[in-house]
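Chapter review: from sequence to fold.
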Amino acid sequence: MTETMTTADVAARWECSPRTIHRRVTAGKLAPLTKVPGLRGPYIFAAAEIERYEATETAGREEAAS
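The token string follows.
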């Protein structure tokens, strides 16, 4: 079974607002597995997707700093 995280889980992990997570999905930077139905339904992410994004963002920041 795949470990999953909700929008709120990711926002708490990154210490940001859920809106920031929504913006990253809209921009195509994060790929959710699905979205729970409803206007305020959260996105569901594979934990591996969140780890991939973190690795990509960390690498990008290190390159910009050098």
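Two observations follow directly from the output. DSSP finds three helices and three strands in the chain. Residues 47-65 form the longest helix (19 residues).
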